[in-house]
Amino acid sequence: MEKNYGLAGNILRVNLTNGTIEKEPSNPSVFKKFIGGRGLGAWMLYHEVPAKTDPLGPDNKLIFMAGPTEGTITPGANKITVTFKSPLTNTYATSLCGGHLGPELKFAGYDGVVIEGKASEPCYLWIDDDKVRIMPAKHLWGKNTHETEDAIRKELGDINVKVAVIGKGGENLVKYACIQTDYHREFGRQGSGAVMGSKLLKAIAIRGTKSIPIAEPEKLAQLTLETYQILANHPKANARKKMGTNELVDGINSLGFMANKNFTEGTSLSAANITGAAMVRDVVFGDVSCYGCNIVCGKNTQVLSSKYGKVRIEGPEFETLTLLGTNTGVYDWEHILRATQIFDEYGVDTMSGGSAVALAMECYEKGIITDEDTDGIKLHFGNGEALCQVAELIGQRKGIGAILADGSLAAATKWGVPELAMQVKGSDFAAYDPRGAKGMGLTYATSPKGAHHMIAPTFGVEIAQNNRFSEEGKAALVRETQFFMAIVDSMALCSSMRFALDLGKQLQFISAVTGWDLNEQEAMVIGERILNVERMFNVREGFSRKDDTLPKRFLEEPLKEGSSQGQVVNLEKMLNEYYELMGWNQEGIPTAERLGKLGICY
Amino acid sequence: MKTLVVDEKKCCGCRICEQWCSWTHEGCVNPTMTRIKVIKLHEQYLNLPLTCTQCVNAPCINSCTFGALTKDQNTGAVLVIEDLCVGCRKCVKACPNGVVSIHKEKRKALICDLCQGAPKCVELCPMGAIQYQDVSLEGRVQQAEAALQITCAKERCE
Amino acid sequence: MHITVKISSSILSNRQGDCIYLAEDSIKVEELLQKLGIDYREIGLVLVDGKKVDLSDIIYHGNEVQILPWFYGG
């Protein structure tokens, strides 16, 4: 039999309702159609989770999926995706996590893990190569994320076991709770942690001792060494190595489209306190990397004598720094680090969390909510202490936190001001204000999992072409970037690898590892297939053009000052063009003809 | 004579050293077939690369009752004579650095051979956290650190 | 004779922050970048008085130059 190069060989299927554990052989022909990771996860979710499934019920699934280049020397091939129906958006959702979890899963002999059903009492999954067991976790329930990780490593007697956990945020079904590993690496968005919590699954621990077969080892080694060289000499990679993703702060802020005070402002002078350079100067004490990556963008940071004592974390990344910091008007390390730490310990997404607090602050300033709603917390923009207090309440689902734990849209709707929630389909925006890069507006509006920046981060190209305020040609740009990113995510490659690897180079890696012969055109068809499967999942749930929209703020309220002053997004024109290019009807629904061409039956 | 020297404060935990150690010696990436091991100490926010330190009067060699371990006279690396190794694991226990393990298929000891004098881990570490340097330079990093600590203490006194 | 240059702090090569470049009458964008020691691969966009310019364009005394990095997102 032909060897399945690049694949670990099996997909693990665990049903928590009846405790069954099965291994299904990985089917290489399906992998070739979707590559792996995000693509394959979408395909499986589409087939296995029917319409109107309760996201927090036993019929929802968590589909963890690695990629074919993972567990090899391929640089930056360390992401693992989890695909599920989101409790925050009720759409398809996928979330990526770096670190060491994905490679470990492949070393254990699995390309993916599907979690089904619901346990009768708290448990965790222990994947020890071929031995897979469901373990009791009553004693872990109620512990925070870091405590849980440590306790499991101790219990299993191996410091090298990789553990993915939920915190109290996930247990309390905070709708944007995350799954966390290695203390500060997260499947961050759209609430995978709440789904895990609803299944009473506290953690997944993995130990692997196997290796992945490679089609052309010499070619792979050569490609890898070349890539190390390119990255070591690449100025953007060096900026990331020095300052992490926060190298973005200065540029985005000076271009006037960085989330400030719930997107009421696009720029702030105070952001000078928290640029990448300022972070290195003030709080960084060490560098952290995910598996097999020589960019090293992770930064360990600390404030030694804050009013909260010593605060030590990894991060905050750019999106956390902005959504949790600038978006709430907080521009100092003490509170940003502490708030990040609280969300991390509770296992809650810092982006949606920050966005929810920012919404509450705007409502408080406008008098829509008062001290009565906040239990006396003075929720003004810029009140870092209040940010930390509310962060804690969200994790505990107490007081105003109970309202915000259902997401910014639910909270704003309850307060009668849904238009103030900065979200699409319930998922909160990333830092890039779409008024400052119109392509991002279309990206957010059409993203299959609600507002999300990495579905198609077009602003770099838009800025370089100096046409960021134009809607012209953005539909084509967004469409192509969406396909390209779908491939990157499905390979399980970190998006930072784009510094060195264009699509052609990525395909060379796939070919060296798996022996598949894919040209760029075929790859883009795979990207399109993935986007359409994701779309069809949402169409089946009743989503259409009416949901591909942006908050009124971005459509009608021009930015008041800064380099993006006066801008609003003219979405409809871009949408029309985008649907047409995608071969979808003007309601945003894929045509049978187009789906047939992509080999998707429904 | 050169040895491997690690600066754990510089290590970022990417495990490129592990990958290539396993790859160059065994032709595959396998976390159990690497002779260098990076341990992540979560609570301390540290990644600690464990390497063979090429001990003189090496405890692993002394522990071996089958004569399967010897010293490479040129590099000072501990060499495993696989025909003589029975996989008894005494050397695993004897190593003060915890860097001897057993090849799971061959059932023979796995010990750093310094890649015949050109260690791959040193070459590919993106942080310069592993150095291959002459023993006469040993302690320079610690000297510098100690000096800094002493001056800091003095500043605090003033 | 001078040109004001604003360099984004994300740009790593050699220098960051704002600076005044003392120039002759005029200088090519490419030459200015070279003299400042900025790697062209870091550059997403060069604006002169707010307008996009190419590497081969010429900058004159009194111009304000803004150098922005290439953005990948993250």
N-to-C SSE string of chain C, H for helix and E for strand: EEEHEEEE
Number of domains of chain B: 1
Q: How many helical elements of chain C?
A: 1
Structural class of chain C: mainly beta
Protein described:
- The complex is a heterotrimer of chains A (602), B (158) and C (74).
- With 602 residues, chain A is of the alpha+beta class.
- Helix content of chain A is 41%, strand content 15%.
- Chain A is built from 25 helices and 17 strands.
- In chain A, strand 10 (179-181) and strand 11 (185-187) form a beta hairpin.
- In chain A, 65% of the residues are buried.
- Chain B has 158 residues and is of the alpha+beta class.
- Chain B is 28% helix and 19% strand.
- Chain B contains five helices and eight strands.
- Chain B has a two-stranded antiparallel sheet with strand order 1-8.
- Chain B is globular.
- Chain C is mainly beta.
- Chain C has one domain: Beta-grasp domain (Ubiquitin-like (UB roll), Roll).
- Chain C has one helix and seven strands.
- The A-B interface holds A 71-73, 100, 104, 107, 146, 149-150, 159-160, 182-183, 208-214, 217, 221, 228, 232, 241, 285-294, 296, 298, 300, 312, 314 and B 9-10, 12-16, 19-20, 22-23, 27-33, 39-43, 45-47, 104, 124, 126-127.
